Task: structure prediction
Amino acid sequence: MFDLYESQRAMRAMRKAALQRGVIAVLDVGTTKVSCLVLRFDGTDRSLEADGVGSLAGQSGFRVIGEATTMSRGVQFGEIVAMRDAERAIRTALQSAQKMAGVRVDHLIACFSGGGPRSYGLAGKVEVKDQVVSEQDIAQVLAACDVPDYGAGRDVLHAQPVNFSLDHRSGLADPRGQIGKELATDLHMLTVDQKVIADLANCVKHSDVELAGVASSAYVAGISSLVEDEQELGAACIDMGGGTTSISIFMKRHMIFADTIRMGGDHVTRDISMGLQIPHSLAERFKTRYGGVIATGRDDHDLIEISGASGDWEHDRRSVTRAELIGIVRPRVEEILEEVRARLEAAGFDHLPSQQIVLSGGASQLPGISELASRILGQQVRLGRPLRVHRLPQSFSTAAHSALVGLSLFAAHPQDEWWDFEVPSEAYPVRSFRRAVRWLKENW
Result:
């Protein structure tokens, strides 16, 4: 079995070596599409050499030299269910991107939306030995965090310190070199199903590249879609993909919560296919071309011609109004947004100083969805798109590629995580996420 926790540090070192060589690929394995970008680093960008414990850089520091998108196969709810089909889709996207770039890629970083992510807020506190905070003190305070028993068959995907405090000073991004007696930290830990990671790692391995990192789609979509003020003051990114809808909450430029709902745009397509009794491919075309969630009086008169090849002339030659189509689409979108609201409430989102919500992902491009989301979620909602990447190809500048672009930023400017320090693995009692949110509210 692929041991993610033991491999994280090795992958981190592999990624650093790949960046020094100047070329790396990023891959988003989704339910409806598999997308790949090949990134070129010139090796002189100082942002790659920063070693502070803190937030992501604001600019990209790389160039996109290869791109490819192919239809996903063998993936459901953001998880691989048919290895051979998924391998074929991954290999197709990777080879096409390499061909366009004109270089061979040896290392790849991948993101995924499945695995049933669970968030934990942890806390740790230690005495500073020499009254000057060192790298070893950082490792010790991370080791002192009260790690929960997150269950068998699950692995830690992200473990990021979101805050440090030294004596009575809080909100420190990097306390190393500062003078104090007592060092404390709050850490966000995200766990996922171990088997989902193992399947992804095997598929990548069979595509003749080395896996140099893995990330949650919820996390990287938030990185690319939220502006700096939103990441600083508190915001949620709702990434509406094909098979899943991912939720991530950011504050002080760190992710402090993530979750996934097993519904997305593909469920809307299925509803259209069943409701209108048309093929899935035609239903997808109707959704993207005529779909929406808010009907007007004009939509009762806008006719959509349906043509088929069943042999039944009356069934093949018919029409429906756009209002009827919206009547099929809206209930499913409402169901997804109601579930999003429940997850945000459970996470304590209303305790943050700001409650901005940003929609991303392919399914967020349905007309009227931001207005509907505002009504259901009761917050400020805007549509997001990938930010902070120069010379990004036009086809990848849409909300549908938010996770992939965010993965590029994650590759270039990673936040320090637990395994970047010599942290002994020990188990401590659980500390709930709600308590961590209260701590953030009181101290920030």
